[in-house]
Amino acid sequence: MLFKPTKQLSAAKYSRRPLHVTLLLIDLCFLAVHIFFLVYFKSKGIEEMFRLNILSVLIYVVMGAAAYKKPTHTTLYACITMIEVLIHAGAALVCVGWETGFAMFIVCCAPFPFFLEFKKTYVAYLFAAVIATEFIVIRIITYEYHNTVYNTISEQEASRLFLFNSCISFMIITIFSVVYKRAKQLDQLNMKAKNESLTMLAKIDPLSQLFNRRAMIDFLKKIEQDAKEGRGAYVLAMGDLDSFKHINDTYGHSAGDNVITTVSRMMTEEVPSEGYVCRWGGEELLFAVPYADVKKGTAIAERIRERLSQHSFVAGDGREYHVTVTFGVCGCDGSFSYERAVSIADKRLYYGKQHGKNRVVSEPVENENPENTETE
Fold first, then answer.
1. What pLDDT digit, counting tens, does each position of 232-268 carry?
2. Do 155 and 49 belong together in one domain?
3. CB of 312 within 8 A of CB of 322?
4. pLDDT at 373
5. Whole-angstrom Cα distance, residue 326 to residue 239?
6. What is the CATH number of the domain that holds 365?
7. What integer pLDDT is reported at residue 149 of this predicted model?
């Protein structure tokens, strides 16, 4: 039958929200944290950090708008965020001291370069080296609390700030880990869906959109095995368009293609959903139906033959023409192979071609080796 893909994995369905929405939510989280620090440092009279947080807020506002419009530049946005966090954390440590916990932001940045896709792999290691260097240098500078620029924060308040910064740092690590894991899962799902799609396309005839011979053989092997194990007989029918070369020569190959697609559609509409239809080769078409006998296969073939014979085709130049098809039908109860069943159907088809065309032949014919045919 016409290609009806199996239910495939869909990365779009798996994703709970679009990428630009996810990036915007992350950006808003960073924006909210910096608005808090902006107000906090202003209240403490730490003007350098107040002005730095104004810049940070502007960065996240601009980046949020950019990420919403162009969400695919995730590596660029992540790098900007990482650099901003490192600068802000380093400046805060110098201003208010190690005990406030701003060093946690530097630590949580350490794995992020390895989550990103850089054109050069060494870039991630350079980022990691810079992060480690900043951590060590800032620790040396702020080894003693009184070495900081400001001493306006009490030890109790520094402890609360340490707890707040630690929670925010763990939240950042968690968010980015979840996003990274989700991205990897989406990549895997996309790859699996693509492979499944390519596998199915390899089984489809591009013109008729029917299964090709390879796909049909796989199906025939399955229903043959079922028949051998007593789970039900099957029937197959080989059809061949009558005088197809004449159609191509007279009306052009586009007319021939139109005939192929039309009869393919008719066959898919007449063959039951449990059956298969394939383009066996050229103008030859084959259908097979499990759990069916010769009588049912003949009735299906007759309906297809009659519909096609009554259908009017119109060539590109406006000329009208008709096409007929001849079928050979064979049923099998598992006592012989599907190859033998195809051979029998083909011989009956050939017999029908020799005796007038536009007919369905399901009775045994000469040179068919009737000892191995099905019980009618």
1. 899 999 999 999 999 989 999 899 999 999 999 999 9
2. yes
3. yes
4. 44
5. 6
6. 3.30.70.270
7. 59
* φ and ψ at residue 229, rounded to 5 degrees: -90, 10
pTM here? 0.53
* Pairing between β-strand 325-332 and β-strand 234-241 as defined by DSSP bridges: antiparallel
Q: What is the dihedral of CA 128, 130, 132, 135, to 10 degrees?
A: -140
CA 326 to chain centre: 40
Q: Are strands 360-361 and 325-332 parallel, antiparallel or unpaired?
A: parallel
Is residue 187 assigned to a domain? yes
Sheet holding 234-241, edge to edge: 276-281, 284-290, 234-241, 325-332, 360-361
Q: Which domain holds residue 33?
A: 11-199
Please state the separation of Cα 42 from the chain's center in Å: 50
Q: Residue 359 and residue 305: Cα distance in Å, rounded?
A: 7
Number of folded domains that form the chain: 2
Rounded CA-CA distance 115/183 in Å is 10
At 223-234, the pLDDT tens digits run 999 999 888 899
DSSP state of 111: T
Among candidate residues 331, 329, 359, 335, the one with its CA nearest the CA of residue 347: 329
Tokens of 200: 């199915």
User: CB-hemisphere CA count at 13 Å for 149?
Assistant: 14
CA-to-CA dists, residue 13 to 17, 183, 194, 200, 266, angstroms: 9, 14, 15, 20, 33
Question: How far out from the chain centre does Cα 190 lie?
Answer: 4
Would residue 2 count as lying in a domain?
no
Count the residues in the chain.
376
Domain annotation covers residue 207: no
Give residue-wise pLDDT tens across range 56-74.
999 999 998 988 888 878 8
- Using alpha carbons, select from 240, 234, 236 the residue that is nearest to residue 352: 240
